[in-house]
Amino acid sequence: MASSSASGTSQFPRWNYDVFLSFRGEDTRKTFTSHLYEILDIRGIKTFQDDKRLEHGASISDELCKAIEESQCAVIIFSKNYATSRWCLNELVKIMDCKTQFGQTVIPVFYDVDPSHVRNQRESFAEAFSKHETKYKDDIEGMQRWRIALTAAANLKGCDIRDKTESDCIRQIIDQISSKLCKISLSYLQNLVGIDTYLKEIESLLGIGINDVRIMGIWGMGGVGKTTIARAMFDTLLVRRDSSYQFDGACFLENIKEYKGRIHSLQNTLLAKLLREKAEYNNKEDGKHQMASRLRSKKVLIVLDDIDDKDHYLEYLADLDWFDNGSRIIVTTRDKHLIEKNNVIYEVNALPDHESIQLFNQYAFNKEVPNEYFKKLSLEVVNHAKGLPLALRVLGSSLRNRGITVWRSAIEQMKNNPNSKIVANLKISYDGLEPIQQKMFLDISCFFRGYGKGAIMQVLKSCDCGAEYGLDVLIERSLVFITEYGKIQMHDLIQEMGRYIVNLQKDLGECSRLWLAKDFEEVMINNTGTMAVEAIWLHSNALRFNNEAMKNMKRLRILHIESWPYDGSNISHDGSIEYLPNNLRWFFWDYYPCESLPSTFEPKMLVHLKLSGNSLRYFWMETKHLPSLRRIDLSGSESLMRTPDFTGMSNLEYLSLACCSNLEEVHHSLRCCSKLIRLDLSRCGRLKMFPCVNVESLEYLSLEKCSRLEKFSEIQGRMKPEAQIHMQGSGLRELPSSYFQYQTHITELDLSYMKNLVALPSSICNLPNLEYLHLNNCSNLEEVHHSLRCCSKLIQLNLYYCKSLKRFPCVNVESLEYLELEHCSSLEKFPEIHGRMKPEIQIHMKYSGLRELPSSYFQYKTHITKLDLSDMENLVALPSSICRLKSLVSLSVSCCLKLESLPEEIGDLDNLEELDASYTLISRPPSSIVRLNKLKILSFSCFRDDGVHFEFPPVAEGLRSLETLSLIYCNLIDGGLPEDIGSLSSLKELDLSGNNFEHLPRSIAQLGALRILDLRNGKRLTQLPELPPELNELRVDCHMALKFIHDLVTKRKKLQRVIFTPLYGKDDAHNDSIYNLFTHALFQNISSLRHDISASDSLSENVFTIVHPWKKIPSWFHHKGRDRSVSVNLPGNWYIPDKFLGFAVCYKGILTDTTAQLIPVCDDGMSWMTQKLALSNHSESDSVYYIHFFFVPFAVLWDTSKANGKTPNDYGHVRLSFSGEMKKFGFRLLYKDEPTEHRVGIRSRYDNGEQHDTVTDEASCCRIL
């Protein structure tokens, strides 16, 4: 920045003026010069004009020289008599010298003179110099300096007033000066980290150019940079040249909160700057009156910095009509509430990590971090500051020019003791809070940061009224915020500030809040508890408890102890807990260590009580009056045997006894709790009875898994419409009729897992609004009462696994969307249907005992798209009405073991895309099936052993969209497949495994789209058919591999992957021998695995692969390993033209690709041959233990254009790298015309991503016929 440069060295001056005016007084003082000076002053441009100049004498004063040096710009007004003054000429020389030396801007103005007359000293300038030469003939050198200065100045860009009006000329000069000052005055912005983003966003929100009056608030926590951003925006707007940015006046009022009680003083300042005149009003009302009347016609730019009081805001901005359209007012504040809701608010957040590091380094080093030691320590400090600019500046400045040892010490201190400057700034927001809000803030900073808002509001409400309002205030003051996940959060340094306030007391017993277990233990051991302690919130598995210490904490309102032991053994105390403060509002203790609460404990103000653990057996022996108590949570108190007397708890709203596994009875006084909203008795496994409950306020009752509760209690009062009662898994045998008497508005009833329930009462008809009924896993339920048909709004009925259900009534299906009958194995007949069924209804009947489906079942389901009737083992036939489902896309009848046929009209399902009829008795599909021209997937796989042969009907140009056909183990024989099967033009996958044909139709070769053909376990198949031209994967048996491997690898067309399977039913020795024969045959033919690709082809080209589900790497792969990369040194003259074929590779695992590289002996880093080869896609059935074989032809790797004149034998290394899951691999070189193998010593190196020592091994070169 210019200013910093000026102050840093004597070579450059400090700019005290924006403009220096040089003029001939008698020519222009009272005309042009005075007009120019006035406009400069109005525009806020600081100008030096020597009003007292007499222009006598030869030299200018030192004061004037200094003024010239300290001015950023100089305006020289050349008039006819300018050169007659030696004063003016010497002033000109000084100005031009400063331009050369300091880079100042000089603007010449030609006032009624021709610029050429000045440049060449003609006319009046010639006359003046003629007189000077006569009078000062001894000073030829001085006159020469005058001439040079005049010529240089006249050559500069300026303004010739003869060509325009005076006002136009002045405007041009102002614009030129403003442009220059803009570049200079905004140069400080380059050092403001992240400022460009802020300015762009704020300027957009200001809407410059829109013809209105707009107020914008810049809001954020203390020290986040609000003032800096506002100042930068203010300066940026002032120097813009566009007419939209021209303001009649501008004012930046800083630190307004410092002027409490002196508002009129700030009003005077504001009016003086905006009106360019003195303002001396003695009271704020006069100031407001003047603002309203004098600024109405002025377009102004105002910044009100750091407002903390609503009155301050209104004293300046009571009415937007005070200002002319186009005016913009920016307000910075820590309190969001001070900004009117209809105004724009810009929130300033903490800096991101990279900008935090940049800002810290500016202040700590003024340059890059000197070394890695400082870099590591810097990151610790930056992490502590959490993006707060104030903290980054303060901490950075304090560590500047200090050594590593001091840094480490300072960081250690920083972690334990907050910086006082940072705390003082942040504490301003705290000091502005009301006492009750300060208390809330300290609670949050000490205990609740990171907790869910809902949970914390319960605590705050238990202690204070107006908790919601208080939290809003804290949010508006930027002290806390709510995350997108609903958690209360605050900045780290804000939390430090809050805890610092609490810790101001030296004695822990005098601190208002304790949150560290070690501090609490110290207070207990030393018995230093006092009245000052208000709240204790601890997380600890081991605590010491002292009754005497607790007796002094009479004002304790929160006692919250969380721990995670399985019993209370880690809580030590002096005997028993005999005293708890009666002032408690919130009492929470996980694994409470005693059998009961102290008899002296009379917490009349207690709102929330939660205790759990194995020790608690009962509360009190006597009745307690607890009028404020609203919540009791004893869940998980496994030793609790009886509940307290509830008579004195008239305001109780929430009672949870869940998982109290030894609780047998709930005290009868519970009926007195008429305000009870929630009662949870779930998993009370020994509960046999509970009292009559007043349900007028009840919204939730859970008896879930109360397995010994056989009888439901009486109900007192009328239940709320929205009440939920959960009885799933309870031991209830029946439900009393009165249960549904007042539940006419209930919408959901969950009775699932009630294994003792035999029947539903007839009173279920009293639930006209019932929408969801869950009876799943009621294994003894035999009947659903016929009155269920009265529930006309029923949406979902779940009878899953009601294995004893034999019948249920006619169902009103007009609203029904979901009916679950799965595993209803005793249900043989489908119920009658009442009403018109919804098109989108889902009915699940898998594993049900239904023998048939009524035709009416499909009468109203014309829009159904998916129908799953699988696993209905008793289903004999499908009704023909199923063929009316014109929207049906998917139909499954798989595992319907008694289903013998499909409806003859199945071809009418025009939109059917998937038909699964596997594992049925169907042996001959109806001929109309070929009309299903949208069908994509068809399966009749059945593993039949009844001697019936499956016959597929002639295709006859049908099934045009069929992509997958599965006929696994269908006992197909010759003729079972139609001869015209080749007309299935879209077929991609054909699975014929496990059948008994000897020959396949020749037209299979015409399946132009076929990619996968599965012929495994075809025991009678004597020969392979001609393969389709686009076949990608073939699956066959090992015995077929031995017969056809030569044909497979030489005549495979586009075949890229062959999968072989072992012979099932044979012992390992037999399969081992077959495998050895297979690998030997493969060895003789592996060179044919080359693919017609070269190094210039697409890298995505697949390599042909053979897959075998065996575990051994064949012995002829002498180079073996387990790593994901192998690098081999090649023997000398390894490449023999027309003899070397390439590299054979096998691996066990699941790989996606391999990268092969040839590396020169003398590695120049430029001649590597590299090719990435994609391995064939693995199928879902592939195992990581399968053996895969593939061959890398030499032509794949060799690219002459990359060889740089080298021959193959100049390359001494080959490297293969694998991607995917690797178990082990084998590798070797292959040659032809050599029937024997020879071994060559070769050094190999494995590399699995880490450095390994070189290992000596032997690899093989193989000569093949």
From TrEMBL:
**Pfam families membership:** C-JID (PF20160), LRR_1 (PF00560), LRR_13 (PF23286), NB-ARC (PF00931), TIR (PF01582), WHD_ROQ1 (PF23282)
Q: Which PROSITE patterns match?
A: LRR, TIR
Q: Which InterPro entries match?
A: Apaf_helical (IPR042197), C-JID (IPR045344), Disease_R_plants (IPR044974), Leu-rich_rpt (IPR001611), Leu-rich_rpt_typical-subtyp (IPR003591), LRR_dom_sf (IPR032675), NB-ARC (IPR002182), P-loop_NTPase (IPR027417)
Top-rank taxon, per record:
Eukaryota
Indicate whether Repeat appears among the record's keywords: yes
Gene Ontology MF, one: NAD+ nucleosidase activity, cyclic ADP-ribose generating
- Output this protein's name: ADP-ribosyl cyclase/cyclic ADP-ribose hydrolase
